[in-house]
Amino acid sequence: MLHAILSEQTLNGVILLRKHLQAAALNNLMGTLFGKRYDLTQCNPEAKELQEMVREGFEILGAFNWSDYLPGLNGFYGPFPINERCSILVPRVKNLVKKIVEEHRNESQKPSDCSDFVDVLLPLDGTDMLCENDTVAVLWEMIFCGTDTTVLLAEWVMAELVLNPDIQTKLHQELDRVVGDKTVTDADVAKSPYLQAVIKETPRVTHLVHFFPGQDFPRQMSISIMEWLSQPTQRPWSTCGP
């Protein structure tokens, strides 16, 4: 990922960070779930298909569907053909995940310290056993949700560090001291309290959806309480210490 970012910076002078973060996050999840990692510098058809399916899934999820609000339009009007796109995406997901699961079944490897998540799922029996469709659903949900949440958090962390160069400098100093030139490990993260604080503070101060205090709502309207509303309020946090 770092080599790809450096190459893009050298060629264009600017970096579109999201695509690099998505590729790295997906690669990491594939290693955890399926025991497969891809060389991101090479063109891998399976990795490319996974990236396309994740991207399509989030585009469908975020698309405005008129028929949700005006059911009468369903079937003859839709600028974003949600149902048609879902009917194409679902079989692609099933085929790819089933193929990887079948590869694990053929290997018939018992769970060990080097096992991936599929190796743990397959031996389950009795009430714990999952049917094929449930197995596919669990694995795809972990890929789908785990990729974009990681990417969005990393993007916001980078944005906040750019806006706060003093915090960026302190974080660099901690990483240089704890990690140095080697690859970061879980043990390094445990020894990096400032890094942990930066990651935890980022979702507290950044908000994807805004709620305006004092705003009027119609009677009988359903309201979801947003926990972040209390987070940026100074009063309750002023007694918490640094």
Describe this structure in words.
The protein has 242 residues and is an all-alpha fold. It has helices at residues 2-12, 17-34, 45-62, 82-107, 117-121, 132-163, 165-178, 186-190, 193-205, 234-237. The chain starts with a helix and ends in a 5-residue tail after the last helix. The relative contact order is 0.08. The model has no long low-confidence stretch (mean pLDDT 78).
Look at the structure and give the mean pLDDT. 78
Quaternary organisation: single chain
Shape: globular
Number of helices: 10
Unreliable sequence segments = none
Structural class: mainly alpha
Secondary structure: number of strands: 0
The ordered string of helix (H) and strand (E) elements is HHHHHHHHHH
Q: What fraction of the residues are assigned to beta strands by DSSP? A: under 5%
